[in-house]
Specification:
mainly alpha; about 90 residues; about 65% helix
């Protein structure tokens, strides 16, 4: 993956938005911008991996600097990741 500086900023902004939405869905509580960005990136990896394994399409993809970012799978993946973390930590 090669990004321009502006492309990287846009990519991280999209990841932060997706991570914040996934965090809200997974009932992760309040978190900052950095945590939301990390959740969005982890969610994109986890969600895309699950979609690939289950042979599901990527319906919402944003193309940034020639690289695809799976918006829907990022939100789903980050929500699942937050849910699993909450389950393991004993939070409700």
């Amino acid at each position: 993956m090669v990004f321009t500086p502006l492309g990287l900023l846009v990519f991280l902004l999209i990841a932060a938005i997706c991570g914040a939405i996934g965090n809200a869905i997974g009932n992760g509580g309040r978190s900052g911008c950095l945590i939301s960005t990390v959740l969005g990136l982890i969610g994109a990896l986890l969600g895309s991996w699950m979609a690939h394994r289950l042979h599901l399409p990527e319906p919402m993809v944003v193309r940034v600097s020639g690289n695809n970012f799976p918006v829907l799978w990022s939100i789903i993946g980050s929500a699942l990741f937050v849910g699993v973390l909450n389950l393991l930590s004993g939070r409700r």
